[in-house]
């Protein structure tokens, strides 16, 4: 038999060891939380400093004339009319092409495609394409859209280029959002006699829409600020005219001549101004940066509203 004193001693030593282990883990948890807080504060302070400087330099330049004037060699009369119009048109083409294709490809790979070697290769390549530098997409678009398809230095070429750039991001985000849906939702729908398409359209897409919209936001926010692929396909740094209006041709309900028009975008205009030594152009670049930031936040707000609107209709 083991003496009671020995058993009590070993029990007390085990409890003490457990307390030391818990205290050590709590110390590491506290240190990790402290490092995370410091990293967050540092990133917030850097962003606040950059945004504050841009706000101070750019706010005095914001006026109605700044939005309705074309770029000029004189900083006092220079505006961003052609730049913000070109940005909206390019992003419109990008969203129309990339969002349906990306969501459709993600749904197919996750719900319809058979799990085999070919599917695995496609999944690996899609994931790798999400990290490819944007200049590679610009070189691809230069040879494919500009020269092979003959689109030239047009809005269509720029929109398709940025669509290729964000397509892997949308596909990956769509698949990750679909994977978060519990399997019992699918099984319950199949048990009620639903077809594959009914399960996808009535359950998979509505439930995964918040995650999908997050991926779309990330992709479009990346596309609106890209400069390298747009420069590669030949975007103009100075343009003093607007693309043709979609309603300019009375014989057609909607004209698509604007797709083949030359263009410039906000990042190109900012790059042009920031490369000049005059301080007035630097202030114009800061003002253009504020406008670009507001455009990005507006897209995010629209996506959040869409996500909230569809989330209210979901019945778990």
Task: Describe the overall structure.
Its main location: membrane. It comes from Candidatus Accumulibacter adjunctus. The protein is mainly alpha-helical and about 325 residues long. The protein folds into 2 domains: about 1-60; about 65-315, Orthogonal Bundle (MetI-like fold). About 75% of the residues lie in helices and about 0% in strands. Helix 3 crosses helix 10 (about 265-275), helix 6 crosses helix 8 (about 195-225) and helix 7 (about 185-190) packs antiparallel against helix 8 (about 195-225).
At the fold tier of CATH, the topology name of the largest domain is MetI-like fold
Strand content: under 5%
Gross morphology: globular
Largest sheet: none
How large is the radius of gyration? 27 Å
Residues in helix, % = over 70%
Instruction: Tell me the CATH architecture of the largest domain.
Output: Orthogonal Bundle
Number of helices: 11
Mean pLDDT: 82
Name the CATH homologous superfamily of the largest domain. MetI-like
Structural class: mainly alpha
Give me the count of strands: 0
GO molecular function: phosphate transmembrane transporter activity
Pfam families: BPD_transp_1
Family: Belongs to the binding-protein-dependent transport system permease family. CysTW subfamily.
Main location: membrane
């Amino acid at each position: 038999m083991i003496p009671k004193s020995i058993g009590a001693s070993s029990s007390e030593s085990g409890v003490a060891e457990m307390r030391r282990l818990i205290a050590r883990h709590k110390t590491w948890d506290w240190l990790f939380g402290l490092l995370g807080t410091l990293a967050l504060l540092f990133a917030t302070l850097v962003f606040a400093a950059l945004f504050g400087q841009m706000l101070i330099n750019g706010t005095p330049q914001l006026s109605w004339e700044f939005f309705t004037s074309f770029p000029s060699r004189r900083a006092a009369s220079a505006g961003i009319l052609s730049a913000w119009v070109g940005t909206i048109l390019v992003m419109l083409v990008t969203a129309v092409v990339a969002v349906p294709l990306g969501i459709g490809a993600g749904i197919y790979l996750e719900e319809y495609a058979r799990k085999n070697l070919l599917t695995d290769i496609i999944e690996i390549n899609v994931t790798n394409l999400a990290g490819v530098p944007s200049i590679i997409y610009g070189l691809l678009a230069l040879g494919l859209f500009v020269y092979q398809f003959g689109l030239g230095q047009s809005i269509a070429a720029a929109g398709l280029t940025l669509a290729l750039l964000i397509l892997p991001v949308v596909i990956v985000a769509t698949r990750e959002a679909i994977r978060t849906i519990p399997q019992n939702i699918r099984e319950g729908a199949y048990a009620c006699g639903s077809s594959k398409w009914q399960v996808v359209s009535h359950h998979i897409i509505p439930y995964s829409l918040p995650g999908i919209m997050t991926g779309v936001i990330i992709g479009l926010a990346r596309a609106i600020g890209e400069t390298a692929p747009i420069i590669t396909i030949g975007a103009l740094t100075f343009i003093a005219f607007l693309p043709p209006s979609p309603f300019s041709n009375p014989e057609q309900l909607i004209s698509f001549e604007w797709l083949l028009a030359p263009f410039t975008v906000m990042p190109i205009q900012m790059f042009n101004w920031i490369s000049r030594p005059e301080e007035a152009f630097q202030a114009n670049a800061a003002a253009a940066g504020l406008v670009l930031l507001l455009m990005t936040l507006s897209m995010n707000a629209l996506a959040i509203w869409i996500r909230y609107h569809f989330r209210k209709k979901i019945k778990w």
